Amino acid sequence: MAEILYDMFDFTKKSINVAILLFIFALLAFMLRIIPLFLLPDTGYIHVIRGDAEYNLRQIEVMAHNFLQYDWFDPMTAYPNGKNIGWGPLFPMIAGAFAIITGASGQAAIVNAASFVPPLMAAVMVPVVYFIAESVSISRFAGIIAVALISVSSLFFLNYMSYGYVDHHAAEILFSAIFCMFYIFAVRDSSGEFKPDIKDKEFLKIFAYSVLAGVFYSACYFTSPTTVLFLVLISIFTLFSCIITHNSGNIPYKLGFINTVAMIIPAIMVLIFGIKYAGFAISSYTVVHVIIPVLVIVATWVLILLSFGLGRTNLKDNKIAYPSVLILAGVIALFASAIVVPDIFSSLFSSANLVFGFGNVAIAEMQPMTLDFILQSYQIGLVLGAGGVIVALYKLYSTKENGYLFVLLWMLVTAYVSIKHMRFDYFVAAPFAILSALCIYYVYSRYYGDFLSYIGKEKKPAEGKSKRKSAKTSDAHLTGTAIFLVITGIAVVFFAASVVNDVRFTEDYSGVSFEKDKWLEAMEWMNENTPDLGVNYYGEYSSDSFVYPEDSYGVMSWWDFGHIITLAGKRIPVSNPFQDNVQGDTGCANFLISGSEEEADRIMDNAGARFVVTNSELTTPDTGILTILSWVNPADITVDYMICLYNSDDSGNSGYSRVYTSNYYNTTVVRLQNLDGTYIEPEEVDVITTTTSGGVKSITGYQTVDYDTAVSEATSDDILVSQNPDMPCCTVQALKNYRLVFESSDPDDNVKIFEYVDGYEVPGEGTVELNLKTNTGREFVYAQKSEGGRFILPYSTIGNPYNVTAIGQYHIIETDEYFDVYEEDIGAK
C-alpha cells in the first residue's frame, strides 16, 4: 500500500505544484455547481430538483432519522401496494451521514446539507481524472489539462452533480471513475510474462489495484445496479486486450489474474450484501449480479486457454486465427445459453436491448441524444475529443499499451449508450476530458518545439554548427506552429466557452428546474390539512409483513409529481416517477384522460385514492394532454383532442394556432383543473367545416356561431372547437364526486387539490348552483344539472373543514329553492 501511495503522491516540488493546481480546479468544479444556491429565492424551504432527487431526499431524510437504516420497501409511494426500491443504499447513506455529521436537523436542513454532496463529489472527480490521464500518458501536463476540462465540460455532468440535484447519479459517476482508475493502474502493462510472487513489489501493486478496482465496482453496484454497464466495458476491453496480447506472442495470464481478483470481490460482496429480489432483472438487486462477474472471470480464462491452445499449433502466428476462434466460441456460447438457461439469457438480452437499443421510453432523460445538445455541451471541444481518439489509436498501434485501449473503449461504450439514452452522457465526461487532454499533450510534445523555432526562441546551436535553416525545415516549423496554435486556440476557447456556458446553464437551471413555491405551498397544505394516513413517514417496513391501515389512502396525480407528494406532502401517491400505476385499472394516465366520471371513479376506487392533485401544466397541449395520451393511446394524438390550424390574413401575416375539441374538455384533468368540476354550456362556439376527398380531410370554412345553432345545424363534416382551453365548445357536465379543497396562489400556473367524496343526494329537477370562495379569495360558481330527478352534491355549506368555502346556500334556479348541506352528509371516500 505504501508503494501505491508513493506512486500517486511523491511529495516533490513538482507534485506540490500539481496539488495546488488540482485544488484550484476542484474548487472551480465545486463553485460552478453551487451557483444555484446563490440564485434561488429564500422561501423558508430548500428548493430541490423535481423528480428522482425528491425521492433520494426522502431516503436520505429517513436514513438520517434512523441512523442510516435503509428501507428496501417503502409504503409511502405506489399506493395501494407500496414499492420495492430498486436503487442502492450507498448514495443516500453517504448523504445521510453527511447530514448527521454537519448537525442537520429537520427536513429543510437535511435537504440543504444533502444538496452539497453532489458538488463535493464533482470536486473529488478532479484528482481521479488527473491520475487516470497521468497514468495513461505518463505526463503530469496531460493530467492537468484533463482536470481543467473535466471541471467545466459536459452539461449533463454539470447538471447531475450540481447543488440541489441530490441523486445517486453523482455517486455512479464518481465511483465508476475510481473503478476505472484502479483498473487502468492494474492493466496498463499487462503484457509479457506474469509470475505471481508475493515478494515481488510489482505483483503486490497489481494485486492491490485489482482489489481496489473490485471494491469500487462494488461501490458502483451498491449505488445503482445499472452500473453493470462497466462490466460490459470490462468484457469488451478483455476481448480486445487478449487479442492484442496473443498477436504480440504472449498469453494474457496477467489480465486473467486481474479480472479474477477484481470480479470475485463484487461477486462475494453481493452475496454478503444479499439478493434482495427474485428473478434475473439486471436493473434490480437480483442474483444476476453474482452471475455476471463470474461470467467475466470464466470468459477471461476461456480466452486465455484458447490463446494457450492456439500458441501450441501452427496457427500461432496467424493474426486472424485467434479472433476467428473467439467469434465462433462466442456464437456457440450464445446459442448454448439461450437453450440451457433461457430465463437468464432472456433477462440479460432484454436489459441489454433497453440500454443499447432505441426503446420507446416515455422518460425525457432516456430519449436519444440530440445533435443540438451534443453541440451545446461539447461545442468546439469535439475537435479535441476526435483528435484524442486518433492519438489514442496511434499510441495503441505503436505501443500496445492497455491504458490507451481502455480509455478508447470507455469513450466509445459510454458515447454509444448516451446517444441511445441521453442521460448516460454523464459517463462520457471523464473519458472525453482524458482523450482531449491526450490530443493537446501530443500536439504540445510534438509541435511546441516547432513553435519556439518559428518565433526564434529555439536553443542556440552548438559551436561550429550552422545557424542557417533550409526552406524544408522552415516549412516544417510553419506547419507544426500552425497545428500547435490551432489546437491551443481550440483548447482555450473550449475552456472559456464551457465556463460561460456552464454559468448560463446553472442560471437557467436555477430558474426552471427547481420546485416552485406553488408546489411546496400545496404540499405543505396537504401535509397539515388532510387526514392522517396511519403510516409513519420515518418508519421501517418490510414488504413481507406490511399491511396498510384501514384509514390509509392514496393521492392520484400525474406520475411526474409523485415524489414531491411523498417528500413535501408526506402523503402516498398512487403513481410516481418510477412509473408505477401509470396505466391500467389504477393508472393515473387513464384517470386523467378519462372522458366519463364513472370511469374516473372506478379508477379512483381501484387505486384506493381519496385526493387528486392537478396543475396547469397537465392541461397544456404539449407537456400535458399529449404526454398523457402517449401513455394511453398514442393514436389519439391527432384531431380527436386538438387541431393545429395555419392562419393567414390579407396583410401577409401568418402562423399556427391550436384549437380544442369536445374530447379535450371532457377529459377528467381539464374538467378538474380548468373548469373546477362545474357544469358549463357555452354561448357560442367556432365551427370548422371540412370536406373529405381521396381519404384526405381538408378545412373549407371556419366561423363563430351561436352554440344552439351550431348543435342543431352541424353536419358530420363539421367540427365544433374553441380557441380557449377554459371555455368549452360543448356542454360539459359537472363532476359530482370531486370538490376543490385547495389551490396555490399562482393564478397562471397553479396547483389544485380535490377531494374524492360520495356526495350528498338531493331530489330535484333543473340546475343547482353554489357560490364558492377558494383559499386564495377567487370566487366561482359550482353548477350541476339534475339527472334522473336528483342532484349529487360534493360541497357542504355547513361544517366544511377546508378553506374553499360556500358563500350562502345551494340554489335550484328553476324552483328558486335554497338549502344547506352538512359536512357529515357529504361522505368522504
Total helices: the number is 30
Nearest-integer average pLDDT? 86
Approximate shape = elongated
Query: What percent of residues adopt helix (DSSP H or I)?
Result: 40-55%
The largest sheet is: 5 strands, antiparallel
Q: What are the segments in which pLDDT stays under 50 over at least 5 consecutive residues? A: 460-467
Structural class: alpha+beta
- Tell me the strand percentage band: 5-15%
Distance between the termini: 65 Å
Number of strands: 18
Radius of gyration: 33 Å
Structural account:
This protein is α+β, with helices and mostly antiparallel strands and 829 residues long. Helix content is 52%, strand content 11%. The protein has 30 helices and 18 strands. The strands form six sheets. Strands 13, 14, 16, 17 and 18 form a five-stranded antiparallel β-sheet that branches. Strands 3-4-11-10 form a four-stranded mixed β-sheet, with helices on both faces. It has a three-stranded antiparallel β-sheet with strand order 8-7-9. A hairpin with an 8-residue loop joins strand 1 (73-74) and strand 2 (83-84).
Give the topology, please.
Layout (H helix, E strand, L loop, with lengths): L1 H7 L4 H21 L1 H5 L12 H14 L7 E2 L8 E2 L5 H12 L5 H9 L1 H21 L2 H11 L4 H5 L9 H19 L13 H23 L5 H19 L5 H21 L14 H23 L10 H20 L1 H15 L14 H8 L2 H19 L2 H19 L8 H26 L16 H42 L4 H13 L24 E3 L5 H6 L20 H6 L3 H11 L1 E7 L5 H12 L9 E7 L5 E7 L1 H4 L2 H6 L10 E10 L2 E11 H7 L4 E4 L16 E6 L7 E6 L3 E4 L3 E7 L5 E7 L4 E4 L11 E2 L3 E3 L4 E3 L3 H4 L3
Parallel strand pairs: 3-4
Antiparallel strand pairs: 1-2, 4-11, 5-6, 7-8, 7-9, 10-11, 12-15, 13-14, 13-16, 13-17, 17-18
